[in-house]
Each structure stands twice: as structure tokens, then as C-alpha cells.
Write a structure and sequence with these properties.
With about 325 residues, the protein is of the alpha+beta class. The chain has six helices and 19 strands. It has helices spanning about 60-70, 90-95, 125-135, 165-180, 195-205, 220-235; strands at about 5, 10, 15-25, 30-40, 45-50, 80-85, 140-145, 155, 160, 185, 210, 250-260, 265-270, 275-280, 285-290, 295-300, 305-310, 315, 320-325. A hairpin with a 2-residue loop joins strand 1 (about 5) and strand 2. It is globular and about 70 Å long.
Amino acid sequence: MRNIINIESFKVYSGAKKGVKIPVLDRPAHTLELPLTIINGSNDGPTVLITAGTHGTEYVGIAVALRVIREIDPSKVSGAVFVAPIINILGYELREKDTFPIEDDYNGKQNMGALYPGDPEGSPHRLTLHHIFSKLVSKSQYLIDLHGGDLYEYLHPCTMIYPTGKKEFDDTLKKMAKASGIEYCISQPLNKNSKGLTAECAKLGIPLLVIEVGSAGIVKEDLIELSYNAVINVLKTIGVLSGRPKTQPEPKYIKGITVVRSTKGGFFHQTVETGSLISKGEKLGEIIGLDGQVIEEIHAPINGLLIQSSCNPSTNSGDGIIRIAEFY
């Protein structure tokens, strides 16, 4: 039988599921609390942290985390599953795309994912992340981070891993990516310039799988199902959830992303669907001036997968309107 889990002033007994709130930041009129559900299994095993809502309007990931909370039975868990469905609570409440909606000192609003491990003496962003990292991330043996297309982007489903060059660690990352059953995986090796949650988890030897499912902030049942099934099969594969995992094919690995930028401002009309395999030189869209005339054609600079594109037609010169994934 597993031990009692103690976190803050809360106790969660073996075979139980409990929702708690962890104080992470004092606001002018109230305390900001992180919602967390702890599923303490009936048998021994590792601790898995599942996070979502680092970007508060990536709603599919949040919906999946809530479904995990609702449907996982503690009696079928070996170890523990911690689920934090909304990391960026203020961003979620204020419907703020991409960033934490408080100025980071004089650096403007920041993407929370890049600021781990936080700072106990830092700005509100960094203080919040310090609590999350020290109390949850650092106590885990695995991490699944749920994301998806934000309000401004169409995104084709994929996973992301960050190999370190250490065989055992990297093999675990690949095992998790394969178990997800998601066709494409962005695999970009960590380097000395890497930062944020991925880099900090690697330093601690915590395998992290990012699941990117969702598009334009729209919640669709088929996308929730895809991401949820990915999470469940990963949990079965690493031995945390009972049941035989489904055998999945190897994903198609992506080595890099090329950003295609407009050189003219105007109305962006995309002519090739996001998720399409494209060829170098293929026309992907056009920029239309407000006189109705085409002022720029957008062509693919490489072969690859059109993995991401802007869903906002209002375009400046220099905007990254399309991203193309290049395969190994």
C-alpha cells in the first residue's frame, strides 16, 4: 500500500482522489491559488505530473486535464497522478492569449513556460512558477504538459520532446512520444541556450512529453479524444495506470521549424490547409491589399509539413504567418 501524500496542509490517503488549492501569489485583494487534483494510487509507483493551461486560452489541453481528473480511478493507479489543469490562472480568467497578464518588472507580459524554475524573490510570474516548480515539478518522476493551438493559430497535432544525449533518458522520451499515438513529434536536442520547463526537467532527469492538440482556441470533441487517449496510453506505458497499452507506430520525427514571414501588410488568405504535406515552391497563400489586389504570394521555401499558421488574416509585414516542419 502506498503512503499518505502530504502537500501543504492537505493529506491524501492511498486509493483516494482529492482536489486542493495551493497558494502561489498574494494579489491586492485576494490570494491566487493553483487548482490541483491528487490521485493517490492503491499501489506503489512513480509520480506523474500533468499540467495544462500554461497558456490560458489553449482550451483543449485544459479540457483534457479536467477529463483526466474526472475519469481516472485511483484503484487502477500505481503511484500517483497530480493534475494541475490551469497553470496560468490569471490568463485563463482574463482570456489572455499566450502570456501571464501582469508586467514582469519592466519586461512586459511574459510567456510563463520560458521562466521556469521561477524565483522565490522575483516578479509575480517568477514567484508563481517557483511555487509550482518546487512543490510539484521537482517532486515528479514524469511530466506530461498539455498544450494546443492558441487563439491566434491553427496547429496540427504533434508531440514535442527534447533529447539530452543521455541514452536511457532519451529512450524514455521516445517511448512516451510513441505511446501517445500522435503522428508527428518535434524532437529538438537541448543545448546550452535551452531554457524553461523542458530544460529544467532535463536537469533533474524528469522525462517531459509536450502534447500539442488544439487549434485556434476551439474546443472540439475529436481533439479532446485524441489528446486524452494519448495521455492514457502514455500512463499505461510507463506503468502508472493499469491495463495493456495500445501498440502505436513510430512517430514521424521533425528536426526543425521554418518560419515563413510576410513582406507586405494586408489581408492574409491561406490557400493550403494546415496539416498538409507541401513541396518547396508550392503556393501556400497570398496577401491581399485593401484595394482587393494581390500584393504578395506566399510560397514554401522547403519541403515539409505545414504544421502551424496564423488564423488572423490581419497581417503586418514581418509577421510569421506560416510554420513548416522539416523531417529528419
